[in-house]
Please model this.
Amino acid sequence: MDPRKPVEVVKDVVETAAAKMADALTPDVPGAPGSGTPAVEEPTTPHDPLPPKREQGTPDTRTPTGAVTGVPPTAKGQQDEYLTTAQGARLRDTDHSLKAGPRGPVLLQDHHLREKITHFDHERIPERVVHARGAGAHGSFTAYGSAERFTRAGFLKKDAQTPVFVRFSTVLGSRGSADTVRDTRGFATKFYTDEGTFDLVGNNMPVFFIQDAIKFPDIIHAAKPHPDREIPQAQSAHDTFWDFVSLHTEAQHHTMWNMSDRGIPRSYRMMEGFGVHTFRLVNEAGGTVLVSSIGSPSSACTRWPGRKPS
Ligand code: HEM
Model:
C-alpha cells in the first residue's frame, strides 16, 4: 500500500505522464501542444509567454536585396517602452488629433494622425487577381555548376549553396479554392544570394496562353469565376473561357498542355519548371548569353561573347 495521500499519488502519476509526453513530443512535431510542459495546477502565477517552438521560428531578417540585417527574427514593431511614429520619433499621445483651438477643425499637419490612419487604411491587402492560392517553403539550393559556362552569378557556381524561399501556386483559384484542381501551376523563387536577391518565376508548362501582354486582362476575365455567381471556382469550365480559347491559337496550344496530366500534378515534387521567355545572363567576359528554358542547353543558348551588357 502506498503510504502517501491519494492526492499526492495522483499528482505524481499525472506529472510523470506529462513529462513522458513532453519527451515523446519533440518540438519539431507539428501539433505538439507547446514549447513547455502544461502544468496541472491552477494557473495562479503570471509568467512570460513560452518561447516559440522550433518550427514556429522566423527566417533570418534580410533587407529586400538579401543582405543579413542582424535584427533578431523575433523583433516586432512597438515592443519598446515608448510608442513611436514609424520613423521612431517618440509620441506623447495617440488619442487626440491636433486641432485649431479647443473646438477647431482637425489640422492636416498632425503627422501622427495621418500616419496612423494611412496605416489603418492599408491593413487589408486585396486578393491577387492571379496566382492567389499558394503554399511556400524555405530551403536550400545547391548548384550543380552546369550553368557556369553561361553566367558569372556566384550562386550558380558548382556546389554553391544558397538559401531559397519558393512559393507554388495555381493560377485561377481564388481564396478558399482547392489545391487539386486542373490548372497551370506556377512557382516563384527567391534566391538569397551573396550578391543580392534573385527572383525567378516559372510555370510547369513550356508554353503560355497569350503571346501579347495586352490580352492578359481578357484571358483572366474569361477564365476567372463569373463575377455575379462566383462559380465555377478555380477551373476552366466556363463558356467565356472556351470562347477565348476558340479564338486564340496560342491559348489552344496551352490548353492542350493543361488538359494533359501536367494540369493535375501529383505533388510539388512532380512539377517541372519553365520560364517560357528567354533569360539574359551575363558571363565572365561580361558578354550576353541568351538562355531559353525549353530544350537542351546546347540548342537553347545563344552566346554573344563580344556583346557587352547594356
Ligand atoms: C503576358 C504574360 C504575363 C502576364 C501579363 C503576367 C501577369 C501576372 C500578374 C499580373 C501576376 C500577379 C502579380 C501580383 O498580383 O502581385 C502574375 C503572377 C505570376 N506569374 Fe505571370 N504573367 C505573364 C506570364 C507569365 C509566365 C510566362 C510565367 C511563368 C512561366 C508566369 C508566372 C507567374 C507566377 C509564378 C506568378 C505568381 C508569383 C508569386 O507566387 O508570387 N507568368 N503574373
In short: Strands lie at 134-142, 161-170, 185-193, 196-203, 278-282, 288-292, 301-304.
